[in-house]
Design brief:
The structure is a single chain. This protein has about 190 residues and is an alpha+beta fold. The chain is built from five helices and nine strands, in the order E-E-H-H-E-E-E-H-E-H-E-E-E-H. It has helices spanning about 20-25, 40-60, 105-125, 135-145, 175-189; strands at about 1-5, 10, 60-65, 75-80, 95-100, 125-130, 150, 155, 170-175. The strands form two sheets. The chain has a five-stranded antiparallel beta sheet with strand order 1-2-3-4-5, sandwiched between helices. Strand 1 and strand 2 form a beta hairpin. The model has no long low-confidence stretch (mean pLDDT about 95).
């Protein structure tokens, strides 16, 4: 089932055939550079199962991102409720993970913009957050292109990573639905 679409992508629920290409991208050290590390195929398959369980529980999730031109899976773009407690939770996070050969084409931004629209207009959320390790400039640029703002006072140590882990510190970006709607209205004038 399709959740949303863009000019170049369909953002949809997951299929069995997605597991193999998703496993490849999760095993790529480039893709996983700012995450806990590459995933085995079994870990990747378990992630797909958790994503689909999230869809069933919340009615939204991390959508499989499929290119329209050749129907290939390039990763995910979507929304999730973080399963950890922190100063800013509960919340809804917008996130993305794309295969390295899809980088630099604006696909993450294109998909994320559509998911922002879906979050605020389709679901009626009031705020979205996104977070990453400070050095992940590719993702931080996408967050900024979405109009998300960063306040260093919101930065946090990720509770799922141990003390001393080089990626434990995270930056937090926020986007208020009211601000996004105000900007959209101004753009239409």
């Amino acid at each position: 089932m399709d959740v949303a679409s863009t000019e170049r992508m369909v953002l949809r629920h997951w299929r069995e055939a997605d597991r193999e290409p998703f496993g490849r991208l999760n095993a790529d050290p480039r893709v996983m550079e700012f995450l806990a590390g590459p995933l085995s195929r079994k870990e990747s398959d378990l992630l797909v199962e958790r994503i689909e369980a999230h869809f069933r529980k919340h009615g939204f999730g991390l959508c499989a991102a499929e290119l329209r031109r050749d129907h290939s899976l390039i990763g995910f773009v979507g929304l999730s409720v973080p399963a950890f407690e922190c100063a800013f939770t509960p919340c809804v996070e917008i996130g993305w993970r794309l295969a390295a050969d899809s980088w630099g084409q604006g696909l993450a931004t294109e998909g994320a913009r559509e998911m922002v629209r879906y979050a605020f207009e389709g679901i009626g959320l009031e705020e979205l957050v996104s977070f990453t390790a400070p050095g992940n400039m590719r993702s931080r640029r996408v967050m900024e292109k979405l109009g998300m703002t960063h306040d260093p006072a919101d930065d946090f140590d990720h509770p799922r990573l141990p003390e001393g882990h080089p990626l434990r510190r995270h930056v937090l970006y926020r986007l208020e639905g009211s601000e996004w709607k105000r900007r959209r209205a101004a753009e239409r004038e």
